[in-house]
Batch of 2 targets.
Target 1
Amino acid sequence: MKKAFELFWSFFKIGAFTLGGGYAMLSMVEKAVVDQKKWIPNDEFWDMIAVVQSLPGVFAVNTALYVGHRVAGTKGAFAAMLGAIIPSIVIILLLATVFHEFHDNPVVERIFKGIRPCVVALILAPSLRMIKSAKVTWKTAIIPIAAVFLIWWCKISPAYVILAAIAGSLIYALVINRRETARRETRDDSPSTVSGASSRVSESRVSSQNEKEAES
Amino acid sequence: MIYLQLLWVFVKIGVLGFGGGYAMLSLIQHEVVDHYGWMTTTDFADMVAISQMTPGPISINLATYVGHTSAGFGGALLASFALCLPSIIMVYFILKLFMSKQNSAILTNTLKGLKPAIAGLIFAAGLAMMNTQNFVDFGCGQYNISVIICVLAFVASYFFKANPILLIVLSGIIGFFAF
């Protein structure tokens, strides 16, 4: 129970003070969980992050659930998750109530008229940065262009576009996986599999770095 | 009824939300603005600005805000919980499956393939917000302050990695004096 409370409090602080979403939170989680509390060894933490960041859903919530579960079971998972989301919910509820009052205020309206075009830019910029970090070539550029066309022009639900993209990517990943297994079998010596596994870990760590850059 | 709709919408977003908070923007926008009409495109832009400026995960902020505007306090809690629900299920039943080296390699490669599509998704969300509701002075008069703000913010964000909160505050100040 004490551990569950500690988890709640660690993630509460992280949820209350990190601006800029999940990836900004990552270094704070590492500091709290790996360096200070020593709940999870450094290597295991980064292996876990590599998996968690590929999963759907809220990155911060996934991380909190996994760390909590790993440290203190079901109780820990829920404690960490609540710690991560309660500050957000409380702050937004307070703001939403206040904002509702001021929404029609002419001064507030003028300020927001300036902010809205900025928000559009803040959404477009990371999408282009993401294309850069995904190393899109002229051949694969068709993917983002098709996604934009389908959603923006044809008004197709992004849910279907994601589902189609998942199907395509999964086939691609399975093909790569099969090719790698085949290569490993032809080499047929055990040290190479070990080095293969560790290079995968370091590669995923690099990709998590890229991800952070893309999001920040 | 509205509660059921909120639950369904945000569970769906939790399941399909690959690639972080921005990727979810497109899904949220489609459901909340286009499909159910719970808010207008200007409300959505304001909401994104507020979510950016407050601490915590952007998607949780958005879910709470959408829930609150469409169904009050209960709606806010329900929407946030619905967004987390797929993650909870995943941690218990699926994560163990992905912790094996081989399966996690497949997962990482899947995300790599998914990334260009997600980037397109986010770009589409930005494009959908480029309208005269958000660019109020577009097409009237020779100075398009909205367009200038958008271009400057884009350059500052993309090329100089400027802090988004700073950009929002500066744009607010420009808006106060210009409109």
Target 2
Amino acid sequence: MKLLFQSFLLNCCVCTTLLFAGTSGLDPSVILHPPADTWPSYHGDYSGRRHSSLTQINRSNVRNLGLAWAFQTGQEDEIKSSPLLVDGILYFTVPDNVWAVDARSGHQIWRYTYPPNKGFHIGQRGVAMYKDSLYFTTPDAHLICLDAKDGKVRWNIVIADSAKGYWTTLSPLVVRNHVIVGVSGDFDNLRGFLRSIDPDTGKTQWTWYSTPPAGTPDQPTGGMTWMTGTYDPGLNLVYWGTGNPTPVLTAKTRPGDGLYTCSIVALNPDNGKLAWAFQPSPHDTHDWDAVETPVLVDGDFHGTPRKMLMQTSRNGYFFVLDRTNGKSLLTTTFGPVNWSLGVDKDGRPIPNPDKDPAPDGRLIAPDEGGMTNYRSPSFDPSTGLFIVDAHPSYGIYFAKPADGTFGWAGADYGVWGKGILEAIDYQTGKIRWSHELGPGGSGAGVLTTDSGLTFTGDALGNVLALDTSNGKTLWHAGTSRGMQSSPIAYELDGHEYVLTSSGGVVFVWALPAD
Amino acid sequence: MSVAFAGADRAAETKLIESGQAVFLQRCAFCHGRDAGGGETGPDLTRSKLVASDVGGDKIGEVVRAGRPSGGMPAFNLPAGEITALAAFVHEEKKLAESQKGGRRGVDDADLQTGNAAAGKSYFEGAGTCSKCHSPTGDLAGVATRYHGLKLEERMLYPSHAPASVTVTLPSGETVTGKLEYHDEFTVGLKDPATGWYRSWPVSQVKYQIDAPAEAHAELLGKYTDDDIHNLMAYLQTLR
């Protein structure tokens, strides 16, 4: 009987596999409720919580975690992407390169290489998927549509003119039949924008500009949109962070708040219309993009059920907003901050003009890299902890008339910093526990699981598994290079895997097979 | 040399600079700026002493290939031809920057002269607690001749990679003291002065005490006013 039962199960598995093999690809509705064997988008789901419901690897057995396989890209560029996992195939990137790799074995299925180009090869955060197509942004600001089956190019469109100073790094966000892409470009006075592209034809559906055209009096340019946003299907709003204004370190030509730079914006994905905006850094002069993941959480806030949006922003502030209207629920710092005069009635920090970059220098906390940066934080629903790789730091900022009003327009230098993982109570902003990650800073992303584990990396190249309830280390493995990406987790054939990357190598961790 | 030949030479050089620019834009420009004049995080290469002393990529190549892990610069394993081209481009940008009339971008020594040396001296001896570890006639005698401008200010604020020492007590009771070579939450490593060899232990198996006096600089960062910094700079610049 037992044998029979097992063979029945086996048959079922085979059927499922065959079924998947026949209908390979990603229906965009799967992103709404990703199954355990699928990581269908940069954040893994639309909420940006980077939380896995898997529980096989838990607090008592995590000490047995070992390497299932590793994949070496052999590239100079570090992996900064979050892989997608669909139908047992992982897709990940470095600039100019996409790999499709068998998630069970680490065998390469195909590799796509984009032709040599002059764009900035500063990072690539991963592909997006719609049906059987992948979407890949390039250093010279093209969007490439690839056949997921073999990596062949279906079409190639220009998102922005790289000769003007744009480049692209982000993993697009797919919402129904919209492929939403953003741009980078800090070294020229350029408009930031978000663009929705038709997944089949590559045609533009809409464009939303974060700033007015260059040369508009008293207005900034900039507001780049270089990290993947999140989406609330109930409200039908995408949430996106925008970057700093340009010129970057001087505000001489842009006296006001500089909308919509350093902002969190809520847009209708069907037409790109702005529903609301909240500005974490009004009148920024320190390069503090507000592009960090806008994490969507439904839950209690001081006794009232709320649809919330949370962000640990590069400028050192933790924000909790009501995501139906963008109103502030909580604004607090999560490390040393010395550039503001406090918080205004709308929950926005008030910049201190004495901390604008100056000819003789100003000591600023945090530094330009910020209190945190693009790697993902994680929200753990059972503890209510928002866990972030924090970077207490100081830098010196200079600007003088000779620096002009174009592009960077000043100079800044990091002085000191360290890495520390912080678990923030979202109702109060209080730091429940913290875990030192080493000198300089870590920069690793964070993943939490339903079994009470937190995965991240330290400044010395260790991959860490911590107890989410208290931040204590339960397991670690040295990789000799820092983690510049955010971990993911998935289940295949009844086994839970945690995937991390350090340098140019992907590591997949699992419990020993029986 | 014929005119045609000189023209061909120039054309070859232009081509070299252009191919160097392509590499620079891909790999270097994000941090060092598209014109090598400084960007996010990376210093202005047109003012760099190393660039000034570089010939055909000999110095630049070393840094590119080894990186500067301490300063956050990754290593780039570029072929020799690309290094030569890269260096040609950086030298060209240096020439261009130096030919600019009027004020230059970036930080000049002259920009860092707004402080008051007497106020800096009293901060040094008083609130700054600098004199607990430093002496203007001892370790800091002549410091302004060894460092100047931005470099001096950076070292004053936080001397990165200042040496630290560690004393490790082994389970046997034996103690080893040496230069701290490695430390994370799992491992402590030192250079054993008796043998010159690196030794390391799991932190769970030993007791250890790290002595890192330079960390006092990090403690001060949250206490300085900008005036304190400018005054201290003025004072340090008198120590010639």
